[in-house]
């Protein structure tokens, strides 16, 4: 843990002096830095930038677009722009966080390409990052910033820049793009279908009617159904089922939520129905799947295999 004096002094220095970070490949605008010793939560909200958070101590719950994630010491996660989220903690957590967005005109094409690819990952949540580079750099940064003077200003800026890049790199290592394993959509309707899929992902805990999705993307139900059949080779119910199974697999592999909560968060009516569908789609019951997922790589491999099977099942002749 960091003592409250380190937190307050580092907050003051970082927010006054490190609003913009510049390096060889990227230039980043930092909306704010924060280190709260006893963070007990906030109200549901959204914002237009990325917010990266790390739990240094304590436990709580993170709610993100209708899905519940447990927070504990060592958890690193990122809230993406326009996602509705909030946290709660009964006893309070020592939470570190910063908010950023790239200054695109001053970033390399390689960095922007990697950053945009990262934006496509639905799951930016790493439960065991306590010995990772971001965790260690972050604590070193706060200690240095709390003792800032004329001689260590440059090292502090370098640490801050390294922290941001190391966070982004770690998320890339622990993520893959699910859409890469699904049928490619290259027609004029690609953007519309991506928007429809995003709407479905954001409402998985609810009953999803094709009429609601069609209205969100400004199409008729018949048009949306036809586009999904033509471009994805899947019916609307099949697309929804695929997204539910994908989200459930993430929660089983990355969290310790009980099966009942996962079934509710992914829109299944009961544990029995959830177990039945998950077993049929993944080839193994949820509880057995969780035991097989010993690390993040195993989780991603299982999910990638499932999505590849979906793509093959529905590929166009």
Describe what you observe in this structure.
By secondary structure, the protein is of the alpha+beta class. 49% of the residues lie in helices and 20% in strands. It has helices spanning 4-17, 109-119, 133-146, 153-173, 190-202, 210-216, 221-231, 236-254, 259-265, 271-282, 286-292, 296-314; strands at 20-22, 27-41, 50-57, 59-64, 67-72, 76-79, 85-102, 125-126. Helix 3 runs antiparallel to helix 4 (153-173). It is globular and about 65 Å long. The chain starts with a helix and ends with a helix.
SSE topology:
Layout (H helix, E strand, L loop, with lengths): L3 H14 L2 E3 L4 E15 L8 E8 L1 E6 L2 E6 L3 E4 L5 E18 L6 H11 L5 E2 L6 H14 L6 H21 L16 H13 L7 H7 L4 H11 L4 H19 L4 H7 L5 H12 L3 H7 L3 H19 L3
Antiparallel strand pairs: 1-2, 2-7, 3-6, 3-7, 4-5, 4-7, 6-8
Helix pairs in contact: 1-3, 3-4, 6-7, 8-12
């Amino acid at each position: 843990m960091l003592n409250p004096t380190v937190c307050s002094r580092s907050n003051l220095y970082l927010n006054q002096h490190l609003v913009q970070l510049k390096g060889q490949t990227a230039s980043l605008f930092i909306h704010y830095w924060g280190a709260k010793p006893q963070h007990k939560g906030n109200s549901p909200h959204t914002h237009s930038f990325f917010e990266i958070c790390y739990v240094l101590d304590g436990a709580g719950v993170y709610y993100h677009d209708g899905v519940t994630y447990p927070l504990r010491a060592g958890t690193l996660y990122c809230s993406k722009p326009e996602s509705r989220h909030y946290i709660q903690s009964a006893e309070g957590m020592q939470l570190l966080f910063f908010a950023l967005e790239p200054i695109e005109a001053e970033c390399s094409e390689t960095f922007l390409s990697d950053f945009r690819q990262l934006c496509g990952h639905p799951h930016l949540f790493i439960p065991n990052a306590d010995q990772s580079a971001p965790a260690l750099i972050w604590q070193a940064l706060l200690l240095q910033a709390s003792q800032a003077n004329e001689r260590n200003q440059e090292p502090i800026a370098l640490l801050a820049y390294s922290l941001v890049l190391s966070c982004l790199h770690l998320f890339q290592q622990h993520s893959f793009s699910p859409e890469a394993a699904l049928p490619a959509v290259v027609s004029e309707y690609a953007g519309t279908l991506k928007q429809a899929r995003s709407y479905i992902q954001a409402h998985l805990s609810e009953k999803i009617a094709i009429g609601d999705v069609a209205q969100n993307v400004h199409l008729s139900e018949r048009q949306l159904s036809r586009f999904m059949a033509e471009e994805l080779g899947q019916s609307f119910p099949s697309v929804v089922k695929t997204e539910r199974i994908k989200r459930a697999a993430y929660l089983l592999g990355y969290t310790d939520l009980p099966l009942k909560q996962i079934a509710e968060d992914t829109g299944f009516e009961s544990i029995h129905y959830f177990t039945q569908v998950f077993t049929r789609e993944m080839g193994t019951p949820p509880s057995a799947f969780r035991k097989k997922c010993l690390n993040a790589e195993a989780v991603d491999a299982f999910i990638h295999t499932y999505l590849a099977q979906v793509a093959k099942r529905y590929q166009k002749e």
